[in-house]
Amino acid sequence: MDAAGTETGAAAPAVLAPRRAPRPRADALRNRERIVSAAREMFVQFGPEVPFDEIARRAGVGNATLYRHFPDRPSLVHEVVVAVLSRTCDRAMGAAAEEADTFAAVRRFVHAAADERTGALCPMISGSFDEEHPELIEGRDRLEAAVAALIERAQSAGRMRADVGVGDLMIAISQLTRPLPGSACLSNDTFVHRHLELFLDGLEAPARSELPGRAATLEDLRGPKTH
Questions:
Q1: How many C-alpha atoms does 59 have within 13 Å on its Cβ side?
Q2: What is the dihedral of CA 58, 60, 65, 67, to 10 degrees?
Q3: C-beta of residue 136 within 8 angstroms of C-beta of residue 82
Q4: Are 162 and 205 contacting, i.e. CB atoms less than 8 angstroms apart?
Q5: Closest listed residue to residue 176, CA positions, set 165, 190, 164, 166
Q6: Which tens digit of pLDDT belongs to each residue from 22-73?
Q7: Rounded to a whole number, what is the distance in angstroms from the first to the last CA of the chain?
Q8: What backbone torsions phi and psi does residue 160 show, to the nearest 5 degrees?
Q9: Quick one: which of 48, 68, 157, 186 is 20 to 30 A from 19 by CA?
Q10: DSSP letter string, 190-209
Q11: What would the pLDDT profile of 60-94 be if each residue is shown by its tens digit?
């Protein structure tokens, strides 16, 4: 002890570094991606109530693996919707970066977004689905900004009529990729891109008609909020 009565030479107490959360293994990430991809395909074909064991079989994983990643249906539906938003946003940004012709970029995005089958996925966003989840809001905002940038570039270049907005584009894509009641979802695939070309012809400038009302926004698509 020293004069102050404290021990000398005693080891300082060890300071434990905070433990980092373990990173998911590569095979776990691959399994998760396969489950989300399989779920998206089956939701498009059969609706959001398709049995989990069928999704697991399509993904090539066991039921236990599926439930380990997604313990309930809302968590899987959420992940599929977020993934579709992200992929669609990437398509918009890719079209803007790689197409010199501004309307060609719009055309490329519309066909690519249709391939995501957003309309067929619309029935999933109901019931217990949390439309105000921060991850979903972020995905929606990113997509809206990317599509708005595409449209603004084409309109500024005089290549696209000025009286349409993001919502008009997304409504058309959604409607043309949503199956008719009582019809096999995939039977309409042959005609989707054909009808999209007819729609795109109407978007090019100069406009051949005057549209009633105002341009639709994504807020219009979401409808009034209820709390």
A1: 28
A2: 0
A3: yes
A4: yes
A5: 190
A6: 555 788 889 999 999 999 988 888 877 899 999 999 999 999 999 999 999 9
A7: 67
A8: -135, 140
A9: 68
A10: HHHHHHHHHHHHHHBSSPSS
A11: 999 999 999 999 998 999 999 899 999 999 999 99
* Reduced 3-state DSSP string for 51-98: CHHHHHHHHCCCHHHHHHHCCCHHHHHHHHHHHHHHHHHHHHHHHHHH
Q: Omega before 206 cis (within 30°)?
A: yes
pTM of the complete model: 0.76
What span, in angstroms and rounded, lies between the C-alpha atoms of 77 and 148?
26
Name residue, tokens 């089956």.
42
114, two tokens: 């249709």
Kindly state the tokens that stand for 110.
Answer: 């519309």
* Dihedrals phi, psi of 204, to nearest 5 degrees: -70, 150
One-letter amino acid for residue 60 of the chain: G
